[in-house]
Structure formats: C-alpha cells, structure tokens
Amino acid sequence: MSALERAGTAEALDRYRRRAALWVKAGAAVLAAGVALGLLTVDSPGADWVPEVLPYPLAGGAFALLLGLGAQRFARRMRRVLGAGDWSAHAAVALPKGVVVLAGPEPGVLLPRQVVAVKERYARVEPGPDGVLWWCGDPRGGGVIAPPGGGELVWTRPVRRTGARRRAVALAELRGLAERPAIGLPLPAAAAPALPYAALAEAAHRQAVVAKPRRRPRWSRPEPDVRTVAWWRVRGLREISGLSWTAGSCAVSAALLGVTWLGGEGVGMLGVLGLFMAAGACVNVFRLLTSGVSAARLLARTAAAPVPVPKRYVVLADPYSGSPVLVVFAPHGGPGDQPEGALPLLRSSAPDEPAGKVELHGWLDLDPRGRPLVVARSGDRVLWPREPYLEAGTPEFAEVAQWLAPPQEEGVPVV
What we know:
Blueprint: H1 7-40, H2 50-53, H3 55-84, E1 88-95, E2 99-103, E3 110-116, H4 119-123, E4 132-137, E5 143-146, E6 154-158, H5 162-174, H6 197-210, H7 235-241, H8 243-263, H9 268-303, E7 309-317, E8 324-329, E9 341-344, E10 355-366, E11 372-378, E12 381-383, E13 390-391, H10 395-404
Antiparallel strand pairs: 1-2, 1-4, 2-3, 3-6, 4-5, 5-6, 7-8, 7-10, 8-9, 9-13, 10-11, 11-12
Helix pairs in contact: 1-3, 7-9, 8-9
C-alpha cells in the first residue's frame, strides 16, 4: 500500500496542488493586468502616476507566479514519493530554523531534515505532545513529513552542511531523541480503532471542560429556518458558499478604487491595493458562481429532507484543525456501542452540549466521490457540515477515527 492510497494523504495532496494552481493563476492575472496597464497608458495624458505604481503589480504578480510554480514543482515531487512508498511513524523533535530531526529505523540513527516551507505551513506539522511525525521518502534525498493521519504535507531535504547536521544531531540527543527509536516499517492499512460510546462521551466532556466557553455576540440572532427562507439568508450557508467573504472583498476593493479615482494625485498606493483586492474579489466571485452557490443550494435541500433519522452523538475536536466532528451512534444502545459514522462540522455549528441526541436529514444527494450529503439538527439549531457524511467501514471514516482516537489507541507502537 502506498501513502497516496490513504484517503487523508490523497486529499492533502489535492489541496496542496489546488493552492499552487491558485497562486499561479492569481500571479499571472496580476502580472498581465500590470503589463496591460502600462501598455494602455504609455501615451495617455494625466497618467503620470502609472510609473510610480506599476512596479508593485509587476513585482507582486511575478512573485506570486514564481511561488505557485515552485509549489507545483514540489507537488509533483510529493506525488512521486508518496506513490512509491508508504508512511512510517518516527519519533521527532523540532529545532530552530525549520529543522526537524527524525529517529531513524535503527536505534541511535538520527535523520536531520530541513523543512522547505513557509513558517505558517511548517507550524502545522510540528511534532505534537506525543513527539511523532509520519515520514515518506528516501533518507538520503527528498521526502515528505506529516502529522499522524497525513492531513498536512511538507517537503523536506537532508541538512547538507556537515557542521549544521552535527549541531542538529547533538541538540536532538540532548532532548532524548536517541532513546526513542521509531518504527521503520510501513504503517498498517487504515482501520478504525475501537471507539465505544462511553469512552468518547467521557473525552467529549473532558474537552468541553478544558475548552474556553463560546460566547455568542449579543447582536447574534438565531438563524432563520432554511425550510421557509432563501438559502442566502442563512448564516451557515453564506459561510459555506463564501457569499459573505465575496461581498466583503468586493465592497473593500470598490471603495479603494473609488477613493483612488476621486482623490486624484497622492493616492497611488491605495490604487495598487485596490487592484490587488479587485483581483482577489474576482477569484472569490468565480468560486461563488462555480461551486459555492450550488453547494449551498444542495445543503439547503438536504436540510429540508422530510424524514429525520434520530441518532445519538458525541462531538470531538479535530486535533489538527480544531473544528468539531460529530460522531454518530445508534439512537438506542449501551456504553459499548460503536459509531455508525462521522460528520465534520463548521466551527460556528458546534452543538451546545458535548453529547446528546440529534436528527439527521439527507441521503438525497452524493458528492463527486459518492459520499452522502447529510445535515444534522439539534433542537431548533441546524449543525451545518463542512464535509459529507463519513459512513463507518469506509477508508475516510477510518482515517478520521484514527485522528480522533488517543495516540495510544491508534495501533502505532511508538516508543
């Protein structure tokens, strides 16, 4: 089994490739707009401000284009490496300057790796409290690291300089990494661990106790019933479709361009910022029209499905994104019942209680991967999903179950 055959890894690589393509398109669009602006105003009277502002879109567009092309190159490398082998679990420590040291497959062998990513992406794969990372690749060349579950991918290369490599190994030894040998064998195929209702309910109540209480703004009103109003009047569906964000970006870019147009001289930087905001607004409008509106309409129809299916639920936080995941159980049963499925939710749709009863509506439509669209209702609230319903027994559910289970229950015996 290769790493790409795992659902979480394939989805993470697909997200990485989409982000790279977006950077390429945005950079090319801004660069083309800058070139067009220069050509159209080369002999225009009153265009003295153009030479002052033109370097900004040209430089910004070129930077975004090169960044996207570089990311696409790393995406091709990741695909080749992840398709050639499977993940292995390694004890790891994070060091300054983007260096990660992995415990090798043999005791006493340490592998210092240099992370090739911006600081924000590197922070997503830093070793957690259990000090474990997944690795796929050639220790002598490039490879990919990820948190357990393979939900975020970062490219790494060996630390080349001898002095830097020795310092990294010495720091890792001081932190006791040499005494924590990791598994060099591939991980077993994803299988859902045992998740009895009683254990998950206890974990959910524990998370609710330590989590900060959610305070809703005083001006926040209950959502209108999606069965009686248009979808765009429902906050959750506006968030899913991207309508609110798109409207905001359009308003800000229009205001900046309007100030530039009416202000005359001395507002060149505002015009550049307005052009960047307008480019982003165009991307948001494209997403809204091509996918956002259709997704919101489908979920509105799903929420209005006439026959509710009662279930018990336990809500747990995804350890990587922090978003709530609704783990669904049979409506009647005992503490040893196993889950029937899972429904990842929007953060704004987290239920008020860590465990309770819920009604599921849907199973009318499927996403492109054949997963059913389901919407949950708890009392008078609609709990809007951020992903389709994951049925027990599928690889996608097994991946999520492994993330939600405590590390010692995953079946990865890291010492």
